[in-house]
Structure formats: C-alpha cells, structure tokens
Amino acid sequence: MKLTCVSRELHPRHTFRISRGTRTEVRNVFVRLESDGIAGYGEASPNAFYDETWEGVTQKIEAARGFIEALDLQTVAGLEAAWGQLWELVAPSRAAQCALDVALWDWLARRRGVSVTELMWARKPEPVTTFCTIGLSSTEELATKMAEMRRFPRIKLKSDATASLRSLEYVRARATGLLAVDANCAWGAADLRALSQSLKKLGVTFIEQPYPPERDADLARARSVLPLMADESCLVEEDVPRVAPLYDGFNIKLVKCGGLTPARRMVLRGKVLKQTLMVGCMLESSALIAAGAVIAQRTSYADLDGAWLIGDDPFRGWQFADGILTPPAEPGLGVEPEAGLFEG
Q1: Which end of the chain is more exposed for a tag (fewer CB within 10 A), N or C?
Q2: Nearest-CA neighbor of 65 among 86, 43, 44, 91?
Q3: If you average pLDDT over every residue of the chain, what do you get?
Q4: What are the pLDDT digits (tens) for 56-70?
C-alpha cells in the first residue's frame, strides 16, 4: 500500500474568531493510500490547543510508513486491529492516527464498491443537517454572515468570557432554526443557571462546554436548565464513561479521538449510556467532513461546516446547500482531490 502525505494551507472565507484567538489560516495534512489501483484519502486538522502541529503530524505519519506499506487490509476487523497497532507508531498524535484511519476506511470501502457508511453501519448514507457556526463577530460581520445564513436550519454561536447575549439576540431575530451556543470553556466566572435561563428564553437548544474540563465537577452545582454537551472534556473514547454523569451528551471529533474507528465505538458506548450525541469538526476540507458525515448517520446533531467555512477546499465530496450535506453516489467517502494536490 503506497502512502503519500502532503500539507496544505486552508483559508477561512470570513475571519474566524473564538475565545482562544483568531484563525486566519490553518495548515492541514492529507494522505493518500494506494493499492490494487484503488486510492483512499484521509485528513488531519492539527490544533495547537491539543499540542498538534502539521509538522508533528507529518513526522508521525512518516513514522508509520513502513507499517502502512506492508499492511494487507482485507476486513473491518483487520482495520480495527491496524488502528491499535498504528497508535504504537504515531502516539501521542491522534491527528496523525485520524488521517491514516480515515484513509484506510475509504480505501477498504472503495475496494468493496460500497460507501463507508454501508461498510460501517450496513445502510446507505442519508443527507445530514448540520449546525453552521458563527464565530465572535462585530456587528458588521454578523450582518454579513446572517445575510447568508438566514434560512439555515441550525446555527451555533461561539461565546467568550463576557457571555454576552448581543449576537444571539441579533441572530434569533433573523433566523427561525435551531440555535446552540458554544462557550469554548470560557464561562468559568458566569452564573450558569441564570445564563441558561436567559438562553432558554431565546430558544437555545443546548450549551456546549461552558466550563474548562478541570471545572467539570462544578456543573452539577451550577444547575443549568439547558442540556450541556461536552467537547473539550470528551476527547477520546476513554472519556465517555467519565463525562456521562456530568453532561447530557458529548461532541465527537475525529481528529481528537483518532479517526472513524474510535468514533464508531464512542457512538455505540454513548447510546448505551443514553447520551445525546453530536459529531463535530475543525476547519477541514470535504475529505474529513465526509468522514464526519459517516458518524452523523447515528448522532442527533452534526456540526460539520468546516469545508463551508473555508474558501479553498482542495477536495470535492458531499454537496453543501443551505445547511444540508447531501451524500455523493460514489463508493468510499465519495471524495476526490483537486488535480495536483498529491504531486510534487
């Protein structure tokens, strides 16, 4: 199995700000695995918040080259075994593990002539309604974004330590769909119960990660009247049983947990624990968004707007229109790279 690994800068269509800073570009890592005339594709979106860089991810993928090129992949069980063996080579980079794991799922499904959804869940993929995110915005930026998103069925707003309701009130007056708020760990000083009551009056569906992970134990005392979804507090599958008593649900991100293989297990474990599930993303191309859409087939919510938020997507895949992702007819993830991405 031939491995090709490249990195590429991606640029947001709008200035993208969250409580931890402004993103003017990201550099993601892409892999192609080729064997028997079939190519499978994967992606990592490294995030410095988790001590991941594109250079580090690339180095870890290269460290796994010998293993990948000798791999004889035949079954899903073999893929799951390979995921565990890969960790010994790429640790501590879950992002590197994600890129390789996603590419292996894509390759195996293409070889079988089915979609990854069919390979994983034994059913054809269905369209996915996704939240689309509004970062911290000036009044002018908010007006520009809402002109485009007015008819979107689900909108998520980022918040910061001020916990201001200004943007939410602006959006609520102009949109009729579901609203959610992502605090990105910034509300440690806020009165969560009072704030959640105000948000409920504005029709907010849930609050994502109000406190930093080290404050999880304080959530019970805070007594939010809205459901709470874990994000930074639930990175890998081992976190699921710990957060289940504290949160109403959790957000699964492939690049944090290590790909489709552990994400599938997180879904199954979460359902046993009666958790509300969401699959999310970073700023990502259509390659990793397509992988997230596979997990979205079994979750209540999806936040898979990463490719829509960037202006130079190097892949084509699931079609995005008015907040709905529609699956392609092609096998595997249904994605293809732009010409030249893996050359040079």
Answers
A1: C
A2: 86
A3: 94
A4: 999 999 999 999 999
Q: Please, which residues have CB within 8 angstroms of residue 59's CB and are 6 or more apart in sequence?
A: none
CATH class of 2-114: alpha beta
- Find, among 255, 231, 240, 213, the residue nearest to 48 by Cα: 255
Query: In the chain, what are the domain boundaries?
Result: 2-114, 128-337
- Residues 128-337: name the CATH superfamily: Enolase-like C-terminal domain (3.20.20.120)
SS3 14: coil
Could you give the C-alpha distances from 233 to 48, 198, 211, 258, in angstroms and in order?
16, 24, 9, 16
3-class secondary-structure state, position 7? strand
pTM: 0.95
Confidence of residue 25 (pLDDT cuts 50, 70, 90): confident
CA 305 – CA 88 distance, rounded (Å)? 32
Residues 6+ apart with CB under 8 A from 305: 130, 131, 132, 133, 281, 320
pLDDT tens digits, one per residue of 67-88? 999 999 999 999 999 999 999 9
